[in-house]
From TrEMBL:
InterPro entries in the cross-refs: GpV-like_apex (IPR044033), Vgr_OB-fold_dom_sf (IPR037026)
Protein name as catalogued: Baseplate assembly protein
Amino acid sequence: MADKYTGTKKASDGASNFNALNSAIRRILSMGGGPALVEVKAVNGTGLKPAGFVDILPMVHQQDGAGRTTPHGMIYGAPYARLQGGKRAFICDPSVGDIGIAIICARDISSVKINRKPSAPGSFRQFDLADAVYLGGYLNAAPEEYCGWINGDFHVKTAGKFIVDAAECDFNCKVNVTGPVAASGDVTAGGISLEKHVHGGVQGGSSTTSTPE
């Protein structure tokens, strides 16, 4: 026997005028487009590019009036949030499998997504899942690469290189290094150049030099 779909109304909704009114109000409230937990299924536009988009799947299933559930469909092309001010940004783009929040916009944002500037709404729709934006992350597993405060210390851990590309770098602290240190240019310690320093008290034989100057 084929499934019978009852919609969102409950069996008790027609029992009285109050129940019918309550059902209508419940239906209107359900169209308000509240935030939803979602899982990232695809990511487009990452790295040193303008902030991109994700395809996301709502994690809480739809439910009919009889209590039966069915999964949501995919939400395609939701803009994701990036911590950015002007031309400065902290890049940590979403990954497939991340869990985050979809915030449903009040109006159609399709034109703004294309133009990336103020635009007329793409249609008359309101509070539609198609007009979601993505903000991560919630309920995710423990990270393997990270930067942050742990037990009072600030840690930076990455599987790749830690690269600082700046005009200059100042450390106002004691520096401890484990492992070899390589420098392509000169090194100065206590005002003495590694490449250009000289030694006094040099003489033939088995004598050793004095300290560098």
